[in-house]
Structures are given as structure tokens and as C-alpha cells.
Write a structure and sequence with these properties.
Number of helices of chain A: 1
CATH superfamily of chain A: Jelly Rolls
Oligomer: homodimer
CATH architecture of chain A: Sandwich
Organism (chains A, B): Sphaerisporangium aureirubrum
Structural class of chain A: mainly beta
Protein name (chains A, B): Cupin domain-containing protein
InterPro entries (chains A, B): Cupin_2, HNL-like_cupin, RmlC-like_jellyroll, RmlC_Cupin_sf
Strand content of chain A: over 45%
Distance between the termini of chain A: 39 Å
Largest sheet of chain A: 6 strands, antiparallel
Number of strands of chain A: 14
CATH topology of chain A: Jelly Rolls
Largest interface: A-B, 33 and 33 residues
Shape of chain A: globular
Helix content of chain A: under 10%
CATH class of chain A: Mainly Beta
Number of domains of chain A: 1
Chain lengths: 133, 133
């Protein structure tokens, strides 16, 4: 059993850049234990993950702001505070802020993560245009 | 991908009694998908789970009140809002409110749950007496 008071004590927040576009800060809550890790992730306007998959799935819990989540082959879905997202094991997806807002969410990631291509400017802009959200 | 706006729309909150002691309400957020389920659980004063295990582990995120979590063979640990608990896969444990407070937590349960004996009045009272919290 591991009990965390608020966040991992004394741990450094990490500026994510390799597999993200834009400015994204990850704040550690639970280090990787048994393949499970918890971070609170803050996306600044325009920032988003690259396409990726979680072997065991992922849970997002939106805390503030407004953003997007998009699974491969589907439309982007608008995210607001109070929303919970279950991303299926192995489902390729991206998530991030909108072009004009921040978004902070808790991310509970299960199993190893596999990273793919970045979400290009065109694909990201299309999220803001789609009607089927 | 499954997106939940706040909680499972229209779902009924469930009074848990078979495997809990006292009055406990579970409010559904995410129904069981891929073996993962999310509930927001409210324990009234004195209420607690029976001893149990989650095959894939469990994450507790404390929202309000004050309570206990206890793994088999160890002391009870006091829980407060903002705390996150990672319960290991197969780790036998119980959690609940203190005798004089409510506790509400989000519970993210991974894999099937196996239930065992109830936490007797003596074992529950001992949580309140221990020093090693």
C-alpha cells in the first residue's frame, strides 16, 4: 500500500517536450508502481500530447479549463471540468488544451505507454472545427 | 473511449450492505469496462468495507471527511482530503470512515474484487487507538 499526501513529496514538476507539442507541465502524484502512475498534467493553450497508447488503458479526470480528447478514426471530444475519460487498453489517442484555453487533468496511466507521431497543426485545428462533439 | 460527464447519467446511487458495515452509498461514475470501474463512495460515521482484495489493485482519492485505510498485517492509516492511496494488486485491506466522521472518496478498482470477513468492532476500534499512523 502506498499513501500519497497530495502529491509525491518533494518531487520536481516536469516540463514535457519529447512527446508533446507546446508547453505542458506534469506534476507527479504517484510514481510508477506495478505499472500504474498518476500525474496531474497542465496543458497551456495550444499544447497537446502526441498520438499514443497505454497498454492497460488510461483514466483522465478533468480539473480545470477546457480541452480535447480524440481517438484514432473518430472526432475530437470537448472536455470540461468534472469529466472522466476511460481510454481503452491499446486505443491510440491524443489529448490537450484548446487553442485558447488551459486544461489540467489528473492522468492515471495503466501499463507502458507507446508514443507515435505528433498531432499536426491541421489535425489539431480540425478539432476546433468539427461539429460532432 | 468512454467519456463521462460528471457521473453515469441517470444511474442510481447504491446502498452497499452485503460487503460493508454501516451505511455506505456508492455513486457510479464509470460502469465496469475492461475490468475497470469508478465509483464515488460515501461512508457515514462508523461505516467501512469488509476485508477485500482487487486483482489489479485500487486507487482511492479522498474528497471529503476523514477515514481509515488498513492493509492486512499493518496499522490503520488516517486519510484526509487530497490523499491518494495505491492499493497493490491482491493486497488484502479495508477502508472506511472514522467513528465520528464521514469520508467520501473516489474509488478506481482494477479487475475483479474478492471479499472476505468483516472488520469486527474490535479491529475497527483499534484503528482509532493506534499510534503508528
Amino acid at each position: 500500500m502506498r499513501i500519497i499526501r497530495g502529491r509525491a513529496a518533494g518531487a520536481t514538476s516536469t516540463l514535457r517536450s519529447d512527446t508533446f507539442a507546446g508547453t505542458v507541465w506534469a506534476d507527479p502524484v504517484l510514481p510508477v508502481i506495478d505499472g500504474t502512475t498518476i500525474n496531474v498534467v497542465t496543458f497551456t493553450p495550444g499544447a497537446r500530447t502526441d498520438w499514443h497508447e497505454h497498454t492497460g488503458g488510461q483514466i483522465l479526470q478533468v480539473l480545470t479549463g477546457e480541452g480535447w480528447v480524440c481517438a484514432a478514426g473518430g472526432p475530437a471530444h470537448r472536455l470540461l471540468p468534472g469529466d472522466t475519460v476511460w481510454v481503452l487498453p491499446g486505443e491510440r489517442h491524443w489529448h490537450g488544451a484548446t487553442a485558447t484555453t488551459v486544461m489540467t487533468h489528473t492522468a492515471i496511466s495503466l501499463g507502458p505507454t507507446h508514443w507515435y507521431d505528433e498531432v499536426g497543426p491541421g489535425g489539431y485545428a480540425a478539432a476546433h472545427d468539427e461539429e460532432s462533439r
